[in-house]
Amino acid sequence: MAGAGSGTAAGKHLSELGLTARSGRDPRISGLTVDSRAVKDGMLFAALPGARWHGAEFIGPALRMGAAAILTDAEGAKLAAEALEGSSAALIVAGDPREALAYAAALWFGAQPATMVAVTGTNGKTSVATFTRQIWMALGHAAINIGTTGVEGAWAAPSSHTTPDPITLQAMLAEAAAAGVTHAAMEASSHGLDQRRLDGVRLKAAGFTNLTQDHLDYHHTMEAYADAKAALFTRLLPEDGTAVVNLNGAGGAEMLALAEERGLKTLAIGRDPLADLRITGQRYDATGQDLRFDWKGEPFQLHLNLVGGFQAENVLVAAGLAIAAGAAPRDVFAVLPQLTGVRGRMQLAATRKNGAAVYVDYAHTPDAIETALKALRPHVMGRIVIVFGAGGDRDTTKRPLMGAAARAHADVLYVTDDNPRSEEPATIRAAVLAACPDANEVGDRAEAILLGVDALGPGDALLIAGKGHETGQTIQGQVYPFDDVEQASIAVAALDGVI
Ligand SMILES: CC(=O)N[C@H]1[C@@H](OP(=O)(O)OP(=O)(O)OC[C@H]2O[C@@H](n3ccc(=O)[nH]c3=O)[C@H](O)[C@@H]2O)O[C@H](CO)[C@@H](O)[C@@H]1O[C@H](C)C(=O)N[C@@H](C)C(=O)N[C@H](CCC(=O)O)C(=O)O
Ligand SMILES: Nc1ncnc2c1ncn2[C@@H]1O[C@H](COP(=O)(O)OP(=O)(O)OP(=O)(O)O)[C@@H](O)[C@H]1O
Ligand SMILES: N[C@H](CCC[C@H](N)C(=O)O)C(=O)O
Ligand SMILES: [Mg+2]
Fold first, then answer.
1. Which of 37, 142, 255, 388 is least surrounded by Cβ atoms within 10 Å, i.e. has the fewest?
2. Where does ATP bind (predicted)?
3. What CATH architecture is 4-106?
């Protein structure tokens, strides 16, 4: 959603949105938008500096469409000086217009679910947000999770981003609150944090899973990527909020130290003896695992219907968030055995007649590939086959690292395509293959899956990595229907003669 004008017919004055115009004028505006093409009479147009251009380039068209106020930065005001000359629109020049917009959007829409938490980290955000929502629902609350898989739970809506832009996000939160939702767990992507998309959200607690390489196309350095993630604890979480940190995850100790430095309450998860929720044992079976942990020294043991050792960390971060947001620890632990896996995360998609299992997983970073393959090992007697690829128009430096992770932890490799987007697919595959030259190269993903399934003997397992819940393959701006889970079933049916 690029614009917002509905629901508040009378509009709001700039001053009610925390905005002050240079002229001191305080018009009543009819809505907010970041897209000049969505401007309607009386709206505020936020002209933001973007990756491709500065939104101020579009101030002229926005004024012609009837914008009553322009929010931008000093550079934007300079860029649009000519267009603004003689205009009666109010001009707000903010040091950080994205921050100003996030707070204005929160004030525009008003309501948010009373209990909100956010989770960041390279891998595991969707899993933790979904588990947190499941815990809350099992405890009888009207709860949602917001992220890569859209808005799910007591109220549902699609979403094009993991962390939606502030106007879309605040509109969602207000609608969910109006529908009776009291609890929300959201994913804080590094792009979202950097662009201040969730700055207007009132958080009770924030979670951290891990920090490993991804998105260097956007952040350029791991330091800048880490800083973007740290902002959830150093900027967004209020003073009385709780930081829930997975000490087992890379970067966890540093994140906990930052939270402690700020004097926040903390809840640590991990094998470390100092952890509040301390994992003391895990035993794997075909469909899940037994988990033993201590809560502030008191032992608990339960069964999780989730494959993969790392899922126990995600579950405990979710439990920590629920506790930090007010739930009684014993009540939370009692419902953990009810948790169900997130679609496309270590999902058992099909089983061959010979017993070999086919899993679909969303691993699309070097660490996730390593984690997912290592997690499968204790469940597999024979060889592990992997079908994977790297996305186009994304961090190019992660490609050989993904190849190396697959080579180190799988026995048979098929390198295929995963959303080449605007790039030449063969170039992406070559970058992956540079680190696993013995892998089979099969560009067509359906064919790669068929070959991967065909390679399975008794006791083997196949991991189809990278697309998880996705339902499309994006090639040159076109989205072609594609579903790994469906393709796995088709391949098994074709090879084993069952429909
Ligand atoms: C790099 C990035 O995050 N870009 C997002 C950003 O675009 P931008 O501000 O850079 O836009 P731009 O194209 O340079 O345009 C600048 C400004 O001019 C405006 N404009 C542009 C054209 C026009 O005619 N009129 C006009 O007003 C635009 O609305 C924009 O405000 O703001 C846009 C509007 O909110 C987003 O749609 C866009 O997401 C792009 C499509 C994207 O792919 N983002 C991905 C990388 C992303 O955010 N991913 C993360 C998570 C990934 C993960 O963790 O795995 C996510 O949270 O989803
Ligand atoms: N705690 C974890 N540690 C390491 N890897 C993990 C962890 N949790 C999940 N993964 C891996 O990352 C993949 C993606 O998981 P999930 O969707 O929960 O992460 P995400 O952070 O939401 O990803 P995205 O940034 O794309 O939204 C999983 O399919 C799994 O392979
Ligand atoms: N949120 C991630 C998803 C990547 C999923 C993978 N299938 C790919 O296309 O690289 C991104 O936009 O980088
Ligand atoms: Mg996600």
1. 37
2. 121-127
3. 3-Layer(aba) Sandwich (3.40)
